Amino acid sequence: MQRYFVNEQFDEQGHLEIVGENAKHISKVMRMQSGDEIVVVTNGQAYVSEIIDIDVAVIVHNTGRTVPSPEMPIKVDIACGLPKGDKLELIAQKATELGMHALIPFAAERSIVKWDDKKGEKKTERLQKIAQEAAEQSHRTYVPQIQQPISFKELLALIPQYDAVFIADEEDAKQLERTKFADKLKKVYDSKLESILCVFGPEGGISRQESASLLQAGAETMSLGPRILRAETAPLYALSAISYEFE
């Protein structure tokens, strides 16, 4: 069943009007008709809804049936040092499929890419659209929020908001003895914590100064194995590990 995220709420009669790109997709792309059913996600809940009228807008009726939420039991935000090319798009898409709660790009010391503020808003809108499409495809009930890039100093200021903060440091991967990420996640699970921030560097990784500042602010290193992962691979590895532990 096709899934659509909307901002509107069902009225007292259980009706809801879908407009814009969603309405166009229903009528022109999927060529649905009255009587067909779709899943409408509003306010974090997925409702099975019947189409009762299709025109410029699509009118649906709430059948009263809901779809269970597949959301992770813990909120996981991903902070990524700005990477090159379209890697941020890949992260936004795949991390959404894996359960990410929010994506926070930041200007890292080793980021080669410099964010263009003039074009930045459109880039963020595109990333948000990619996240929404991925959320629909993976049948989520929440669309991760894609934030505008922030400075490293602003990233440090966010750390107190989280129950646990982990940083992916490639220097940690080179150590002969490492604390397994699984062991640290088990402590998070046993403590029933509610939010995690995972911090990843750009292609060159987290700098020594950034790592020291993060550790001083209360972060811990996370070992993602003995192999050095690409900037776009590491967040997906971490999300998979968290999903394995919590789901």
Task: Describe this structure in a few short sentences.
This protein has 247 residues and is an alpha/beta fold. It contains 8 helices and 12 strands.
Portion of residues in beta strands equals: 25-35%
Structural class: alpha/beta
- What is the β-strand count? 12
What is the residue-mean pLDDT, rounded to a whole number? 92
**Percentage of residues assigned to helices:** 25-40%
Uncertain regions: pLDDT < 50 for 5+ in a row?
none
Element order, helices and strands?
EEHEEEEHEHEEHEHHEHEH
H/I helix tally: 8
The separation of the N and C termini measures 24 Å
Rg on CA atoms, Å: 20 Å
Based on Cα principal axes, name the global outline.
elongated
Features:
247 residues; alpha/beta; 5-stranded mixed β-sheet
Describe this structure in words.
The chain has 247 residues and is α/β, with parallel strands linked by helices. The protein is 34% helix and 26% strand. It has 8 helices and 12 strands. It has helices spanning 20-29, 87-97, 117-137, 152-158, 170-173, 181-190, 208-216, 234-246; strands at residues 3-5, 15-18, 37-42, 45-54, 58-67, 75-81, 102-107, 145-146, 150-151, 164-168, 195-200, 220-222. Strands 6, 7, 8, 9, 10, 11 and 12 form a 7-stranded parallel beta sheet that branches. Helix 2 (87-97) runs parallel beside helix 3 and helix 6 (181-190) crosses helix 8. It is elongated and about 60 Å long. The model has no long low-confidence stretch (mean pLDDT 92).
